[in-house]
Amino acid sequence: QVQLLESGGGLVQAGGSLRLSCAATGRTFSNYHMGWFRQAPGKEREFVAAITWSGGVTKYADSVKGRFTISRDNAKNTLYLQMNSLKPEDTAVYYCAGAAFSNNPGDYGYWGQGTQVTVSS
Fold first, then answer.
1. Four-residue CA torsion sign, 7, 118, 59, 103
2. Is 78 helix (H, G, I), strand (E, B) or coil?
3. How confident is the model at residue 47 (pLDDT cuts 50, 70, 90)?
4. pLDDT single digits (tens) 70-104
């Protein structure tokens, strides 16, 4: 079992930046591929980014490519999402998830409670 806790969300103006963190406890975090998803009101949960267990391979949704960076620190059991050049359409609840390297939320067995990101225009 892995417990995930996101932090770092908030209100930011368009063009600004935020860094989300996801602290993992429980089973060995470094064994797991991890991902970030987001869900806006009235919309389905959508893939944002994923990273392999070593951090060596990453992938991104087209909508965030070039603006967001996923990374991890296995020594600190923490996953990150650096979000730059934020747009109002990035407004959503952001979730970290383990343990898959997939765009499909159904492939992930562990989820955090989410952190709200709101981007004002």
1. positive
2. strand
3. very high
4. 999 999 999 999 999 999 999 999 999 999 999 99
Nearest to 27 by CA among 77, 70, 76: 77
119 in Cβ contact with 13 (< 8 Å):
yes
- Amino acid code (one letter) for 103: N
Contacts of 48 (CB under 8 A, 6+ apart): 35, 36, 37, 38, 60, 61, 64, 68, 70, 81, 94
Residue indicated by tokens 């970290």: 96
Angle CA(111)–CA(114)–CA(116) in degrees, nearest 5? 160
Alpha-carbon distance of 118 to 4, in angstroms, equals 21
Nearest-angstrom CA–CA distance, 37 and 22: 12
Q: Is the pLDDT of residue 27 over 90?
A: no
Task: Specify the residue for token string 């909508």.
Answer: 63
Q: Tell me the two tokens of residue 10.
A: 């908030």
